[in-house]
Amino acid sequence: MTKTAVVSDIHGNLEALKAVLDDIGTKSVDRIFCLGDVIGYGPNPKECLDLSEAFELCLLGNHDNGALFPPEGFSANAERAIEWTRQELLAADDERRDLRFAFLNRMPRVHMEGSLMFVHGSPRCPLTEYVFPEDVNNSNRIVRLLSFVQHVCFQGHTHIPGVFTEDSRFLSPADLPEGFGLSDTKLMVNVGSVGQPRDGDRRACYLTLEDNWLEFHRVEYDFETTIEKIYQVPALDNFLGDRLRDGK
Considering the chain, what is the average pLDDT of its residues? Predict the structure, then answer.
């Protein structure tokens, strides 16, 4: 059967992306799916786009969309970062500038593979809706979101990995050290973030899916190099680098 690595929220963090790709290379993976936000926040948007173009699937994230159209609903820091990112892409003097924008323009919002759904945000609003672990305290919301799901929805956007179950539980990777088997019940699975983890673990995160079994993986990377790059860009708030140390 096909073994798929699912990544998300790279956010222009080249050091994290390279470390994850190296780790994926040790796991006999057949293909890589990305759930969006290749760019935004981080200092290497061009390089991350170039590497991501080789993936079998790359969905549109809200930050990717923000590089194409005026961003909506962004914080001040995020808006400054995506404006800098857009200018970096526009100012590129290499032969790949137009190819990068063409890549962004052809990113789909939703991918279906049988009963499996792949989105950036949520099954209800693929681009922008957040689904946080604490949302399990509102069982009606979880039931409503799962009504848009045939079987399993893989998503990113919050940068917090874990599994949302039909009975309104949230299982973090720490709860699933041996992995997790997909049954007939509906699930939403957040794959976490490669470039800006926010679950208190600063290591890059992704998952692999083979048959009906998924596993989360954490990867160390040289975050201090990424932080220093961010510090060197006035338009990128130092906070965007500092948070990489804490994974928050």
Answer: 96
